[in-house]
């Protein structure tokens, strides 16, 4: 059956098989011709390619390459190999490097990144991480990142920045930035936290007379006044210098010079003990005030207004004024950390608003004459207690010729309510405020009486009141 069908199929298409047999030589001819044509075309193309390459090479060798675009010569197509770079550009063709940065240096052209801007300690351009922060005022000098402060006693452990205590809590006086207990700083009688000075018109609570855990130190300084001018022979003297607890030679301090009364010594207002049923020592009051933040830490200087070692011969106002300018102030400025750049007169004058002078009884007269009338250019603030003998003419002379354009820092005056010098102190204060034109009651001038007589307990309270406002910010 299968054979019959095969024979039948073969018989049905005899013409087709005959045509296939007849066309096969033609197919081979065409295929072979096409192959020869293709090979020929390839040969011609290769020849032309090689020839054009030689022509291109010849053209490139003869081209001056005067115009480049994207590292390729516009005239001949030559690609620059970028063999030399300068500031991130190829010296030959001017091609700008795309930069592949590693450790702040481009691995292609060798350019060092200038790190123009950092974000979170990493360069925005090359990604370079700041290798080690070098802080100045709480900001890294290399990358500009701000220190995340870790405070300890007002100093950051990470960057060593000292907190400026710009604001603090009114009740606790804790700095809102570092947490350290700081001091009130009064401007026109009010601290930025809203607190006002705590003035007393009677004896201070006894707690202020107690020895303080954080006590300042007292240094005795001996010095000589050379013969000539006010002194016929050499005069040897001693003064006390009080340095507050935690005194820092890198920080500038205000300076207050305090002068004792008649028949006293340089110890009277600092280390001498007075019996009031308790031991009254002025140094304890200074310590307590500064430790409690009632006033800013300051340097206190206690000279003597006497000549010689027997404390019997008064200096004149002129001689003590010279002693202040030639010996006391220069020594303090040169040996301690004050706002004066040096002990030279010009530097002392520039820092005058950070220097004050005061005294009690006879010492108040020296503060007025030797300090204010004769050295107003060196002192900005004054404390005059239980003594004022300025005549109207002296005040007029001071206002017209001495005061001039220099500002008045603060003038504080006071006396005991039963003090025999009360009227002189009050009248002298009122006359100065009226004539000066630069003193305003309650702003930079104050007169305050304290219950008591012409005595140390009164002056102790008065100094407590005055030191809160004397160097207002």
Notes on the protein architecture:
The mean pLDDT is 87. The protein has an eight-stranded mixed β-sheet. The protein has a two-stranded antiparallel ribbon with strand order 1-2. Among the domains are: 46 residues, no CATH class; 268 residues, 3-Layer(aba) Sandwich (Rossmann fold), CATH 3.40.50.1820. By secondary structure, the chain is of the alpha+beta class. Helix content is 31%, strand content 19%. The protein has nine helices and 26 strands. A hairpin with a 2-residue loop joins strand 7 and strand 8.
* Beta-strand segment tally: 26
Strand order of the largest sheet: 15-16-20-17-23-24-25-26
Assembly context of the chains: single chain
Low-confidence stretches: none
CATH class of the domain at 199-466: Alpha Beta
- By CATH, the topology of the domain at 199-466 is Rossmann fold
CATH arch. level architecture of the domain at 199-466: 3-Layer(aba) Sandwich
Distinct helical segment count: 9
- Summarize the biggest pleated sheet: 8 strands, mixed
- Give the class from helix and strand content and strand pairing: alpha+beta
Globally, the shape reads elongated
- Mean of the pLDDT scores? 87
Strand content: 15-25%
Relevant CATH superfamily of the domain at 199-466: Alpha/Beta hydrolase fold, catalytic domain
Radius of gyration: 47 Å
Distance between the termini: 128 Å
Helical coverage, percent range: 25-40%
């Amino acid at each position: 059956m299968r054979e019959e069908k095969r024979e039948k199929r073969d018989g049905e298409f005899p013409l087709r098989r005959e045509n296939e047999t007849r066309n096969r030589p033609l197919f081979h001819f065409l295929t072979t011709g096409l192959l020869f044509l293709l090979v020929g075309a390839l040969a011609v193309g290769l020849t032309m390619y090689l020839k054009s390459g030689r022509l291109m090479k010849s053209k490139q060798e003869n081209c001056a390459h005067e115009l480049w675009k994207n590292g390729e010569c516009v005239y001949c197509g030559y690609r620059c190999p970028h063999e030399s770079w300068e500031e991130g550009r190829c010296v030959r063709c001017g091609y700008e490097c795309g930069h592949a940065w590693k450790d702040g240096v481009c691995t292609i052209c060798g350019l060092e990144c200038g790190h123009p801007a950092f974000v979170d300690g990493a360069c925005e351009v090359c990604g370079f991480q700041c290798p080690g922060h070098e802080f100045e005022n709480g900001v890294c000098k290399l990358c500009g990142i701000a220190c995340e402060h870790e405070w300890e006693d007002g100093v950051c452990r990470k960057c060593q920045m000292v907190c400026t205590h710009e604001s603090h809590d009114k009740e606790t006086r804790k700095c809102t930035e570092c947490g350290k207990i700081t001091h009130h700083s009064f401007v026109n009688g009010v601290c930025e936290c809203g607190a006002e000075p705590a003035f007393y018109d009677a004896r201070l609570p006894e707690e202020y007379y107690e020895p303080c855990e954080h006590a300042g130190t007292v240094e005795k300084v001996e010095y000589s006044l050379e013969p000539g001018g006010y002194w016929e022979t050499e005069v040897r003297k001693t003064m006390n210098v009080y340095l507050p607890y935690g005194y820092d030679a890198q920080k500038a301090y205000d300076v207050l010079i305090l002068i004792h009364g008649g028949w006293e010594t340089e110890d009277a207002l600092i280390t001498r003990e007075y019996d009031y049923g308790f031991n009254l020592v002025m140094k304890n009051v200074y310590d307590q005030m500064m430790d409690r933040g009632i006033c800013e830490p300051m340097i206190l200087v206690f000279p003597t207004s006497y000549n010689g070692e027997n404390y019997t011969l008064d200096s004149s106002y002129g001689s003590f004024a010279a002693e202040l300018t030639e010996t006391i102030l220069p020594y303090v400025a040169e040996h301690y950390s004050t706002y004066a750049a040096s002990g030279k007169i010009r530097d002392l004058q520039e820092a005058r608003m950070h220097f004050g002078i005061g005294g009690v009884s006879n010492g108040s007269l020296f503060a007025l004459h030797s300090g204010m009338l004769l050295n107003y250019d060196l002192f900005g603030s004054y404390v005059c207690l239980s003594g004022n003998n300025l005549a109207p003419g002296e005040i007029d002379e001071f206002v017209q010729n001495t005061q001039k354009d220099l500002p008045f820092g603060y003038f504080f005056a006071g006396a005991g309510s039963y003090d025999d010098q009360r009227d002189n102190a009050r009248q002298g204060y009122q006359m100065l405020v009226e004539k000066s034109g630069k003193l305003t009651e309650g702003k930079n001038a104050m007169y305050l009486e304290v219950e008591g007589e012409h005595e140390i307990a009164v002056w102790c309270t008065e100094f407590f009141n005055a030191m809160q406002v004397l160097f207002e910010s």
